[in-house]
């Protein structure tokens, strides 16, 4: 019989090994699924995970997709380590895009060099404002932020939908539900000519570096870690739980908002009813896959971005539905959480217990 | 001659380079209370964990009733008839006593049957315990009773107790001893780990003494003195602290009519507590666990805020000030629970040192940590309080209870607080470390600090305190000079919790 028993100390090795095993298991399940669907598993996996890396276009698209994932996951990971469970990054992303995009549309004729910074700041502020609602509810009324932030996501998406169907609809857009294009002054510069790789990537790298310093070196980061591990010890130390909850939700909301406006200003260039393939939710997987560590989030973000691009390719080349991306991400999270059990516990063979 | 109940021979077990047990032999006769003595880290815990199937030995054999056995799991140990009461409680806080006991049984037992069996054990051994109370609301003493009852339900032949009296009052300890003697007379064997040598002398017929993983002596404790036992344990005895005769300074801690509602259903309300502690003195608050000590400490540390005017440090009202603010004023508080309250279990000692660092210690600048300074400060505490660990990078939960205790007390004392409130300063700490800690408290007082010690250990209170007050059912007696108190008087005042109303000085 197998017995699961707690380890004396969480295993560091397993904490790092667990994502690798989870990825391997996910690939196995993926191969099985493709096989059952009558496709050649080897070819399908190649299209999904290797082929995108064989062209410059594929590589830059990878970075384009990884940018919002890394930005959002970096903020979420900080909150998660403090036991603040912001599940509503998708909503904060959307409101960030709305706030920045709205400003850009309002000053459509402006050519001021200040417009782009203002648009980006508005995006951050929008995300923070959306994160502030669960923070207020949690600190004032003890409302669980998992539920409030998640539900606010749907409010944000409906708000976007109403705006692009109504007030913000492009007057010259033949009645399509989309805004007019953002002006050049409100568009993020492109980093590599003839690609979509925009300056948002730099924000993501800056966020990672900032989060690394914050969590590893700063007093606030220390307080966040303590409060995530032992609320009673944090109280004894005299840390403000309320302040830390606000900090974590504003920071993760702000970064999600920045991701949203970066995507709109750098990639999509207008507001549409759908501006995200679920980046805000997928970033949760990225955060955990990256071990809630800023440096881990970069490879995790790249891997998940790969599953988006590979999924698109697989639709064309292998003829499988778009849902394959979601399936891979879901299976990966499933195995990751399963393997994470081995960080805190070990499995050993135990003699069958008599009764 | 009958075979011993259990016989260990040449048991060895290493952790990395450390030989925790090095060829230890030990045998227990049926109907014997056998003491296992030794400093923290001498190998006592490792040895009993081997007996209880939590660890496997690297070498050596074990016999049970003359038959060789290998015990691989605690369940196997229990099946043989071995029960163990741990020093650190293994209870689920959010469940009731009954649910906790039901969970720990190896077989499913019907609730009403279990309730009856628990009732029978409680009645047989005269233990005060309510099966439907939630564990989070129980005092340390009551939690221990849950563990003992849980063991006795398995009808063990051998009962292992690790530091059982460290949380009990003298009266409670006497009750436990009566229970243990009753168990012995029933023919059961008891392996008894304790740092309290006087009680070992009163209770045990034989003692095995470990030092550095080896058995250094076996003796009859009744023919030894506490000092001779201690010397065998640690090789030499550090000097006992000297009570400073120095004068008392100005009043530094003032509590005025402090009343607090209970924090939860089974919490204790504080009722009109008044107290003054002057610089240069140690004031002891004696009391049975769960009589408001936790609430009083939280009110003094700043974890509970109190109406202005009830608590003042150095004449300044601090009731509305949080823990950090009070620390900045030179106050320090050590709560009873080490892991998860005074220390974050999964964080390193260096991190845990920074947890309560006041600004004047200069361990952070401009909002950034100074890792080298923090590690240096942690190493200093580790050195001066002889904390046995691999270094400042060790995780708090990897230390033994006594060693973590030394680190936490050392952390606060090292900052030379002017006001020091400390609960159970030497709970679970070995004799040598207890002397170190008490001497450090004494030194703080001699330097002019006001020290408030909340303890259930009357020996300790009488040894180091200048004045003593007793807390019972959330009320505090008047403080009196230690010389004018007898142990019996204090014990009686402590007992007021169980009895009806009544208060010293009324």
Q: Classify the beta-strand content of chain A into a percent band.
A: under 5%
Helix content of chain A: 55-70%
Record field, number of beta strands of chain B = 23
End-to-end gap of chain B: 61 Å
The figure for the number of domains of chain B is 2
Radius of gyration of chain A: 22 Å
Explain this structure to me?
The complex is a heterodimer of chains A (355) and B (506). By secondary structure, chain A is an all-alpha fold. Chain A has a domain at 62-290. Helix content of chain A is 70%, strand content 3%. Chain A has 13 helices and two strands. Chain B folds into two domains: 6-234, P-loop containing nucleotide triphosphate hydrolases (Rossmann fold); 251-497, 3-Layer(aba) Sandwich (Rossmann fold), CATH 3.40.50. In chain B, the strands form five sheets. In chain B, strands 13, 16, 19, 20, 21, 22 and 23 form a seven-stranded mixed beta sheet that branches. In chain B, a hairpin with a 2-residue loop joins strand 1 (6-15) and strand 2 (18-28). Helices cover 32% and strands 24% of the residues of chain B. Mean pLDDT of chain B is 85; it is low at 497-506. Chain B is α/β, with parallel strands linked by helices. Chains A and B meet through helix 8 and helix 9 of A and helix 2, helix 10, helix 11 and strand 18 of B.
Which short descriptors sum up this protein?
heterodimer, A: 355 residues, mainly alpha, B: 506 residues, alpha/beta, Rossmann fold, 2 domains, seven-stranded mixed sheet, six-stranded mixed sheet, 23 strands, 24% strand, disordered C terminus
């Amino acid at each position: 019989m197998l017995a699961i028993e707690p380890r004396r100390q969480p295993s560091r090795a397993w904490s790092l090994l667990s994502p690798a095993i989870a990825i391997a298991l996910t690939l196995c399940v993926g191969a099985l699924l493709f096989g059952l669907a009558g496709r050649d598993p080897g070819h399908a996996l190649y299209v999904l995970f290797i082929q995108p890396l064989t062209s410059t276009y594929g590589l830059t698209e990878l970075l384009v997709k990884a940018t919002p994932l890394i930005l959002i996951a970096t903020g979420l990971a900080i909150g998660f380590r403090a036991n603040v469970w912001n599940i509503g990054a998708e909503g904060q992303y959307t409101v960030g895009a709305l706030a920045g995009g709205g400003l850009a549309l309002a000053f459509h004729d402006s050519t001021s060099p200040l417009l782009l910074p203002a648009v980006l700041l508005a995006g951050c502020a929008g995300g923070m404002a959306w994160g502030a609602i669960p923070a207020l509810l949690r600190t004032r009324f003890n409302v669980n932020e998992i539920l409030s932030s998640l539900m606010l996501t749907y409010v944000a998406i409906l708000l976007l939908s109403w705006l692009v169907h109504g007030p913000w609809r492009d007057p010259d857009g033949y009645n399509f539900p989309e805004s007019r294009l953002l002006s050049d002054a409100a568009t993020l510069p492109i980093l590599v000519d003839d690609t979509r790789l925009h300056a948002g990537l730099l924000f993501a790298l800056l966020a990672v570096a900032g989060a690394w310093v914050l969590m590893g070196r700063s007093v606030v980061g220390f307080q966040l870690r303590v409060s995530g591990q032992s609320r009673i010890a944090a109280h004894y130390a005299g840390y403000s739980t309320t302040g830390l909850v606000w900090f974590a939700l504003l920071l993760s909301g702000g970064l999600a908002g920045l991701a949203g406006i970066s995507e709109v200003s750098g990639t999509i260039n207008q507001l549409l009813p759908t501006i995200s393939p679920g980046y805000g939710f997928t970033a949760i997987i990225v955060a955990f896959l990256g071990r809630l560590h800023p440096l881990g989030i970069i490879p995790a973000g790249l891997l998940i971005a790969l599953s988006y691009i590979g999924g698109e390719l697989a639709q064309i080349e292998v003829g499988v539905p778009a849902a394959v991306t979601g399936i891979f991400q879901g299976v990966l999270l499933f195995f990751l959480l399963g393997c994470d059990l081995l960080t805190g516990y070990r499995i050993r063979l135990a003699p069958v217990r008599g009764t | 001659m009958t075979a011993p109940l259990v016989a260990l021979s040449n048991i060895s077990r290493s952790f990395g380079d450390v030989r925790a047990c090095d060829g230890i032999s030990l045998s227990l006769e049926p109907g014997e209370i056998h003491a296992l003595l030794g400093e923290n880290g001498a190998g006592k815990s490792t040895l009993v964990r081997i007996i209880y199937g939590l660890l496997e030995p690297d070498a050596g054999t074990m016999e049970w009733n003359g038959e060789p056995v290998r015990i691989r799991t605690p369940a196997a140990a229990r099946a043989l008839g071995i029960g163990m009461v741990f020093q650190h409680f293994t209870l689920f806080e959010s469940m009731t006593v009954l649910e906790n006991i039901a969970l720990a049984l190896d077989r499913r037992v019907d609730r009403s049957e279990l309730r009856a069996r628990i009732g029978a054990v409680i009645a047989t051994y005269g233990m005060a315990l309510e099966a439907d109370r939630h564990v989070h609301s129980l005092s340390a003493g009551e939690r221990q009773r849950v563990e003992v009852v849980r063991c006795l339900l398995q009808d063990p032949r051998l009962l292992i107790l690790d530091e059982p009296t460290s949380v009990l009052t003298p009266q409670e300890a006497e009750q436990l001893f009566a229970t243990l003697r009753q168990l012995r007379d029933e023919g059961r064997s008891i392996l008894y780990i304790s740092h309290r040598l006087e009680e070992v002398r009163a209770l045990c017929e034989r003692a095995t003494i470990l030092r550095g993983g080896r058995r250094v002596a076996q003796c009859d404790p009744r023919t030894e003195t506490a000092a001779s036992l201690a010397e065998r344990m640690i090789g030499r005895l550090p000097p006992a602290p000297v009570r400073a005769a120095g004068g008392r300074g100005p009043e530094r801690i003032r509590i005025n009519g402090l009343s607090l509602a209970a924090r939860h259903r089974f919490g204790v309300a504080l009722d009109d507590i008044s107290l003054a502690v002057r610089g240069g003195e140690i004031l002891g608050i004696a009391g049975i666990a769960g009589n408001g000590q936790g609430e009083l400490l939280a009110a003094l540390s700043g974890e509970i805020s109190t109406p202005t005017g009830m608590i003042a440090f150095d004449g300044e009202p601090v009731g509305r000030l949080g823990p950090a603010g009070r620390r900045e004023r030179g106050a320090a508080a050590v709560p009873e629970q080490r892991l998860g309250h005074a220390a974050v279990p999964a964080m390193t000692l260096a991190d845990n040192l920074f947890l309560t660092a006041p600004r004047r210690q200069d361990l952070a600048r401009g909002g950034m940590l100074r890792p080298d300074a923090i590690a240096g400060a942690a190493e200093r505490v580790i050195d001066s309080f002889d904390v046995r660990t691999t270094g400042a990078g060790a995780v708090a939960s990897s230390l033994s209870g006594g060693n973590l205790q030394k680190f936490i007390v050392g952390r606060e004392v090292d900052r030379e607080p002017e006001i020091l409130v400390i609960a159970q300063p030497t709970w679970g700490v070995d004799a040598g470390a207890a002397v170190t800690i008490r001497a450090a408290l004494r030194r703080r007082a001699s330097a002019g600090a006001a020290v408030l010690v909340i303890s259930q250990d009357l020996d300790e209170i009488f040894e180091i305190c200048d004045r003593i007050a007793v807390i019972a059912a959330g009320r505090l007696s008047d403080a009196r000079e230690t010389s004018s108190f007898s142990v019996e008087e204090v014990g009686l005042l402590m007992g007021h919790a169980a009895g009806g109303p009544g208060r010293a000085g009324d």
